[in-house]
Amino acid sequence: MTHFRNPIIPGFYPDPSVCRVGEDYYLVTSTFEFFPGVPVFHSRDLVHWEQIGHCLTRPSQLPLKDAEPSGGIYAPTIRYHDGLFYMVTTNVTCGGNFYVTASDPAGEWSDPIYVDQGGIDPSLLFDDDGKVYFVSNGNGCMSLCEIDPKTGEKLAPTVKTWPGMGGRYPEAPHLYKINGMYYMMIAEGGTEYGHMETIARSASPYGPWEPSPRNPILTNRNTGMDMPIQATGHADLVQTPSGDWYAVFLAFRMSQGYFHHLGRETYLAPVTWEDGFPYIGTCPLEGEVNLPEAPVQQVPATTDFSAQGLEWVTLREPNGDRVQFTEKGLLLHGMPENLNAYNPTILLRRQQHFTMRCETVLDFEPRLHEEAGLTTFYNLRTHYEIYLTRTAQGRRVQVRRVVGDMEMLAADIPAPAGEITLQITADKLTYTFWCNGQALCTAATQFLSTEATPSSFTGVMLGLYATGNGRRCVSPARFDHFTYEGQN
After folding, report:
1. What's the domain range around 261?
2. Tens digits of per-residue pLDDT, 337-383?
3. How far apart (Å, rounded) are the C-alpha atoms in residues 37 and 58?
4. Rounded to an integer, what distance in angstroms lies between the CA atom of residue 153 and that of residue 146?
5. Are 267 and 6 in contact (CB under 8 A)?
6. Is 474 helix (H, G, I), strand (E, B) or coil?
7. Which sequence positions are flagged as catalytic?
């Protein structure tokens, strides 16, 4: 047995999908406007997960130039069939529904194969008779067609199938065939406090559908606000070799009241079967998995930037030679775009713990108005940063808060010569910004929350950045290292 404590993958890793190959489990999540896209995780016990790569690592796979905040890649599904892994998803910004394939999920994946069916959150079912079904959601109902898996060509017209149980925003369909019956499992209620998972079964992938009498089969909507985990839904099922069933799904942890800022995370729960239907219930805080424990190598607390670790991403399309990994640290070549723009010079990783400390050592000689530093970044309209700059008063360290259409200079002190150490510490309610061991100011976490940023699906990222604020920086900013330490 292996003990787990939720979330099993903390931080902004939403919309999980899982598949099993032998005794190995593979999991993917959404990435929206960040590049590379769709991280791939591996586990042997469903509890300890190690990132082994990304599905979308080339601009030809992932055009994101014009992606709005929370645009880009939605809700991937991973499946395995006849020696190939399939990852199917939606780029809501460019191209629509597509899938990529790989024989090794840690290696290079194919160029996209597009499917001419609308909606989002697609999934695949490889049936026993060789047919392959493609299902997505749109216009309040699940849509289904048969495709050629080699080309993505539709072999039959799209038909409307199960609409769900009447909850708003029915989405995230997964179609399974279990013991000769087809099961359609979907999320309803919106990916917020009313979120839930429902399911129906049929003798045909086209229906008619018999809903489970215990719907919703997963929800925390009735647990009360004293339950720290909320918004459970968007689930995927997996069976172990011994026949046990488990579900992975998204949820979030509240920091205060109705606010959450770490994003939607990946959770785990056991599944029971009653009268021919799976049932999950409410999300447990912790539990047991009937598999031998298989710990994995953890991401080091400190990176020296000799190479780009898998935890690091950029905004929208890759930054090319603006971001360089060297033996002397990370070099960022600031361009005119700043953090309010679509394509700043920035490297980011997820904040995964309410209580955490991150730190870097910065070597930078800015000209007037140039800056480089450390940011808590939600999107281009919502971020806090501590940075080194030059003003008419000389070399300065400043802290800025940007929330919607409001911008505030929260701290401004003279900067010492040479390298400086920048640090951000956090608890559930507050970020504190430090320079060379001196606390400069604090800022509330709630203004970086999903509830404070309309139509947002991501979470706080920690970023290193450089900008010329209207012109190109003459000298690069060098970040000697980056340390991240989190406490559960």
Report:
1. 2-289
2. 999 999 999 999 999 999 999 999 999 999 999 999 999 999 999 99
3. 9
4. 9
5. yes
6. coil
7. 15, 171
